[in-house]
Specification:
- The protein is 73% helix and 0% strand.
- The termini are far apart.
- It has 109 residues and is mainly α.
- The protein contains 3 helices and no strands.
- Among the domains are: 35 residues; 31 residues.
Length: 109
């Protein structure tokens, strides 16, 4: 019984043998580093401009932006933490047995 490599592995290795010399040659050129740097800068500038434009557009329509929503979520989280803290303080000061449970729903019939 022979153990040969799976078909997918043979395909990957064949592609690697063909592409590796080309990719190694290209990756060692300074022009590639410059092109990648310019690409990153351009992408970042486009993202900033798009965010700024969409933020202005949404504010013109009186709609919240992502930063507005994130700020509100932070405020809500702080309020929830404060309510939880106050709830713990109230529970510490109340007697053990209380009638604070909601009444059972009435059955209509």
């Amino acid at each position: 019984m022979t153990t040969s490599k799976p078909l997918w592995r043979r395909g990957v290795e064949a592609a690697d043998r063909v592409a590796a010399p080309v990719l190694e040659g290209v990756s060692q050129h300074e022009a590639l580093a410059i092109a990648l740097g310019l690409f990153q800068q351009t992408r970042k500038a486009i993202r900033r401009r798009t965010e700024r434009t969409s933020r202005r557009f949404l504010h013109a329509l009186n709609l919240p932006t992502a930063s507005d929503v994130n700020r509100l979520l932070s405020v809500i989280a702080a309020v929830e933490n404060r309510v939880r803290s106050l709830d713990d303080q109230v529970k510490e000061r109340l007697p053990v047995e209380t009638d604070l449970e909601p009444p059972a729903p009435r059955s209509e019939g």
